[in-house]
Design a protein that fits this description.
homodimer, DNA-binding, 12 helices, mainly alpha
Amino acid sequence: MLKTKAKTAAKTRIQSENQDLILKAALDVFSTYGFRGATVDQIAVKCGLSKPNLLYYFRRKEDLYAAVLEQTLTEWLAPLRMLDVNNDPIAELTRYIEAKLDMSFANPAASKLFANEILHGAPHVAKYLKGPLKDLVEAKNAVLRQWITEGKIRSVDPRHFIFAIWAITQHYADFSVQVEALLKPAEKPATIKAAVVEILLRGLKVS
Amino acid sequence: MLKTKAKTAAKTRIQSENQDLILKAALDVFSTYGFRGATVDQIAVKCGLSKPNLLYYFRRKEDLYAAVLEQTLTEWLAPLRMLDVNNDPIAELTRYIEAKLDMSFANPAASKLFANEILHGAPHVAKYLKGPLKDLVEAKNAVLRQWITEGKIRSVDPRHFIFAIWAITQHYADFSVQVEALLKPAEKPATIKAAVVEILLRGLKVS
DNA sequence: ACGCGTCTTGACCATTTGATCAAGAATGAA
DNA sequence: TTCATTCTTGATCAAATGGTCAAGACGCGT
């Protein structure tokens, strides 16, 4: 009936399952080898599909990459959006930093995928950076400025402080190989979180 | 005479010139597109040589990549080696942070090349990370611990603090596209340096 | 100017890889 | 069961790309 005629592609069970399989495998492979380094065959093998079958769901390699990237981006900024001007600054920032570190530990592939994209000039997300991301950063810039004005935290350049949080927290995902090589006996996430929070926030506390 | 017999390849003028051209172009291309993404032809065109001619100087693409990477690594850690336990901690750390930022501004390609290598699992420098780099980090770890013991700076996890410096300073090179998109009117290097130094060091100052 | 060794390149090869297609297999609603 | 739709794949193609080679051009010390 309408089901087959409907322009709004209603997903069948098989479609949902396979697209999910493909996206998971693609995130792994793309984040490890980069867009050019990854091969469609690699991804197909990883999720147990044939190459033509994978290309039945995503007609071009680039379509698949774009889908993986988009899926990652949406969840990437959720913790920052939650930064609430009405709560205690140190508590809010601690929560944000720890949430970002948890994401780096739990899903380093997502962080690496994003890092790779930006590193290579952000050809697929340039619009996103100048649009939604910039808007969000400006909003949180205002939050930090208000906290400073109210004397709740010491003065700091809000934008560069956000960059610092991103840089450090994502460093533990993007440079995990280096971190693990230099931290002889692996440290517990809780230890790392405490160290990072202290480094970033001690300078902000008043008196 | 000996010149032609010598095992130690004495470079001719043309060799020096062309190898230099090739390494410069290769750094640009590799850092922009990654190892797999870069093509030998691209690099050859960029330095005005034919592909076979380039391959006359570096027989395999991987040899060229290794040469570029090695050249980059040596100069990469120079500023950290200079960290002197006998000088004032804040002055020394300020100098180090500013030196790293200067490197990011002046030669972002080198930073991106290194980031890309680590991001993809450090297949060519794993030995380097566990050897020379680890030794250097441990040495500077000791320096920071001594400063803390002497009460010259407040307590901090030295290794994670070094990671923080690396992460933030290299962020301005590796994520330059994002930074530029979010910093509407471009900021002067001096402004960024002041902001970063403040974020990293304010928490370390005593009393 | 000579001649040896260095440098350069057009043509070519083998492999990898993204993508296509026609034909057949599975699915599921009636 | 029927049959239209969806799903799957072996075979195959065209382009890109790392690398080779033989032949010739050039540099340079004598």
